[in-house]
Amino acid sequence: MRIALERPDQPEVMALIDELDAYQKPLYPAESHHGVDMAALLQPDMAFAVARDGEGRALGCGAVWCTPAFGELKRMFVRPQCRGLGVARALLGLLEAQARARGCAAMALETGIHQHEAIALYQRAGYRFCPPFGAYLADPYSVFMQKPL
């Protein structure tokens, strides 16, 4: 497996993001979807990473939006058939390192209440539940977590 910063607007990576959207849309009402669009993913304050197998196929992706206050994890997704192989943990490690290198003192994230595997991963990685942060409002479908770097 190789994980590197890449552009999110590659066809295979856009297909991966589409898979993430297709997975999440049935789980939550539209007002509880907080994913960022391609224009946001291409901004200089966003670091976007892709995990690929030995043959170069995209297995998963994730991004960190670096703000002066914290790095916010966005668009984390690993294809279901690739889960349990350490892909998400490796992506998370790279994104945290990127945030640290860009001066972020903490990480924060919003995920959905039905994404139990993701919540467990973040807890194992040292994230703790917190109130809504930034521009987020309380949402019964959202879970908010943070971790000092």
From TrEMBL:
InterPro entries found in the cross-reference section: Acyl_CoA_acyltransferase (IPR016181), Bact_Acetyltransf (IPR050832), GNAT_dom (IPR000182)
PROSITE patterns reported for this sequence: GNAT (PS51186)
Species of provenance: Chromobacterium sphagni
All copies of domain N-acetyltransferase, residue ranges: 4-149
GO terms of molecular function: acyltransferase activity, transferring groups other than amino-acyl groups
Keywords carried by this UniProt record: Acyltransferase, Transferase
UniProt KW Transferase keyword: yes
Protein name: GNAT family N-acetyltransferase
Domain of life: Bacteria
Pfam families: Acetyltransf_1
